[in-house]
Design goal:
By secondary structure, this protein is mainly alpha-helical. The protein has 4 helices and 2 strands. Helix content is 36%, strand content 8%. Helix 1 links the parallel strand 1 and strand 2.
Length: 80
């Protein structure tokens, strides 16, 4: 289990990306599940997240991944 509090950082600024993020993180509100990488040369899961990650790095109040599901910023990032 990943305990993000051991990072000694403000968890409102931490995202945990993993193929098993929700199941393996003690702070599921910070978990962002991605497709697990299986040595596939054509895997673009992380590249596909770039617009979203750029969107959330813009100056604005941070939202947890659970809040992103209904956030217009998240929907905006997915549509780009």
């Amino acid at each position: 289990m990943q305990d993000l509090t051991k990072l000694n950082r403000d968890l409102s600024h931490v995202i945990y990306l993993s193929g098993h993020a929700v199941e393996s993180c003690l702070q599921p509100e910070n978990a962002l599940p991605v497709k697990a990488w299986k040595l596939e040369n054509d895997d673009t899961a992380l590249l596909d997240l770039l617009p979203f990650l750029e969107c959330i790095t813009a100056p604005a109040p941070f939202q947890t991944p659970v809040q992103w599901e209904t956030s217009s910023d998240f929907l905006c990032a997915l549509s780009n």
